[in-house]
Amino acid sequence: MQRLPGLSMAVGALFVSASAVLIDLARVSPGTASFYRCLLALPVLAPLALRERGGRGHAAGGRVMTVLAGLLFAGDMLLWTAAIEEVGAGLSTVLVNVQVVIVPLLAWAVDREPVTRRFLLALPPLLLGVVLAGAVLESGVGGSDPVLGTIHAVLAALCYSGYLFLLRRNSGEGRTLRAYLLVTVSAGACSLVVGAWWQGVELAPGWAAIGWLALVALFGQVLGWLLVALSSPRLPSHVGAILLLFTPVGAVALGALVLGERPTPLQLSGCVLILTSSCMATMGHRPARES
C-alpha cells in the first residue's frame, strides 16, 4: 500500500461501489442500514485502531472536527440510502459523487484555495448531468421517485463533501485508523438517533438483512473506506478525486448485473456528463502544498 497508493485507492473505491447494491438487497430503512453498517464494522475497526502506532493524539479541537465529520458521514449515509430505492443503486452513487466538484468549492470558500478556469467550465455540464441522471425531464423511469431521489442524492453529496473536506483538513494528526474509528462511532450514533425519527430503525431486521449489512460493513465501511483513508494522503488531491470515480462506475455496473437496473439513454448520458465533467474539473487542480 505504501508503494502503490493509486492502486489501493482504486481498489478501495471499487469495494465501496458494492455498498449500494448490498443495501438494496437488505431491504431495510435508511436508519437501519446506516446504523448497522457502522455497528458491524466496529469489531474489525476497533482492534486495528488500538494497534495503530505513531502520530500525535488528537487535540480537543481535532476530536470535535472528527466527530463533526462523522455526523456529516451519517447524513450522507441516511440520504444516500433513501436515494437508492428512489432513483436506483447505480444512479444514486453517480449523483453522490458530484463531491469531486463540491470539495474544491469548499476549499476555495474556507481555505481560499484557488480554482482553475477548467474547473469553472466543468460546472455547467456537471449540473446538466445531474438533471439528466435524475430523470427530471422524463417520466416512467425506474425507481420509486427519481426526482426526490435526485434531491436526496444531491443533499447526500453535500454531506459527503463536508465529510471528505473535514477528514482531509484534519488528517495531519497521524492517527488515521483512530480518527476513522471515531468517525464510525459518531456516524453510527447519529444514524440511530436521526434514523429513529426519519423512517425508523429496526433493531432486529432479521438475519438475512443483517447478513447483507455485514457485507456492507466489510466491503464498504472497513475494506473500502480504510483503503481510501490510508491511500489519499499519499496522492495528489486531484488524483484521489478522479480515482474515487471508480465508485459510481462500479455501482452502475453492479446495479445492472445484480439488480437488473436499466437506466434510460438520457440517464446514461447524464452519468457520462457527470463523470467526464468531474474528470475535467479535478484534472485542473494542483495538489495542495504540504506545510
Automatic annotation (TrEMBL):
It is a multi-pass membrane protein. The chain crosses the membrane at residues 30-50, 62-83, 89-110, 119-137, 149-167, 179-198, 210-230, 242-260. Residues 8-133, 149-281 form the EamA domain. Keywords: Membrane, Transmembrane, Transmembrane helix. It holds the Pfam family EamA. It is found in: Membrane. GO terms for cellular component: membrane. Belongs to the EamA transporter family. PANTHER family: EAMA DOMAIN-CONTAINING PROTEIN, INNER MEMBRANE TRANSPORTER. This is DMT family transporter. The lineage of its organism: Bacteria, Bacillati, Actinomycetota, Actinomycetes, Streptosporangiales.
